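Notes to self after the Tuesday call (sharing in case useful).
The group wants a holo model before anyone commits to mutagenesis around the pocket. I volunteered. Ligand is oxa(dethia)-CoA. Logging inputs and output together so the record is complete.
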Amino acid sequence: MYNSKIAGLGAYVPENIVTNDDLAKRMDTNDAWIQERTGIKERRHIEKGDGNSTATMGAKAAKIALERAKIDAADIDLIVFATLSPDYYFPGCGVQVQELLDMPTVPALDVRNQCTGFIYALSTADQFIKTGMYKNVLVIGSENHSGGLDFTTRGRNVSVIFGDGAGAAVLTREEDNSKGILSTHLHSEGKHALELALRGPSTMEWVPEIMEKDPQEDIPYYPYMNGQFVFKNAVQRFAEVVNEGLEKNGLTAKDIDMLIPHQANLRISQFVQKQFKLSDDQIYNNIERYGNTTAASIPIALTEAWEKGKIKEGDNLILAAFGSGFTWGSAVIKW
Ligand code: UT7
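Result:
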């Protein structure tokens, strides 16, 4: 059995910055409400014609990660792509990256675990490397939220939160089992599937049926979120799954050098920080600049933290996420 380690990280966000005041011109909201409830000041949105999509942003982040890892795209054995906002209903974005990066005919796997997508993708990649089946795996999280949000007042509790962007990690074999990804922990609870969901168009609610619905009554083609219920579950599950990772590795909260939580809401991160009594140096947040980028939030934050020199060799790094499904998970990494 091998371990896997992160050999390179990359992130890409569209240039177009959308502030809270910009959103207030489109719907009944305001900067004070958004900042107070979520910590978000601005987010990035793809603009028509800027060449960005979920797949192309993912490929841009991947290119940076590959360069930093000093691993050629031709040496990647598997692509794992996490997103809830793929370019097409099918095929998934993984195969698009294979083409965009001109890679050999490697397998491409798409993961659909929303805000926990990057942790599920990382864990999947880790298993392939652990067993020795693959040596180098490209893991991507990317989202184009702005293409599918309701920017009228009706959708304000969801649309002010989410932003576009991508992050990527190149995983490679680590022969020293005390280093790299030490463990991953994954969970789901499908009874809450519709508390945070985009129901259609889908095989259950196809376009003609949706068109017959009264947009004032039911709008399955925009995301629905039961915000307070999601919030309560998130704080509980974040804490549980971080503890699970610590216990599995004989660590305590004091041993955490850096916690990178999925950037769902600054209030959730602060709750987790308080629960584990972490100093501001032991947690990294950037939601104020990007909003919630779902599967991309952890790899973007991880890339930034690494670029700023906040993650050093030998550090105990914890990644944790909670989101639609419900799904939640964590990863414990010795850097
Ligand atoms: O990453 C996936 C996981 N997602 C999450 O973890 C999100 C978890 N939930 C949350 O972050 C919070 O629930 C929200 C930020 C979504 C909402 O905050 P809240 O404190 O739970 O507010 P609320 O939904 O209870 O709404 C409070 C009030 C309502 O008005 P009334 O009924 O009190 O008059 C809303 O209509 O705020 C109103 N409101 C807004 N006002 C201005 C909702 N959205 C907005 C808005 N601007 N954008």
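Two things stood out.
The first strand starts at residue 3 and ends at 12.
The radius of gyration is 19 Å.
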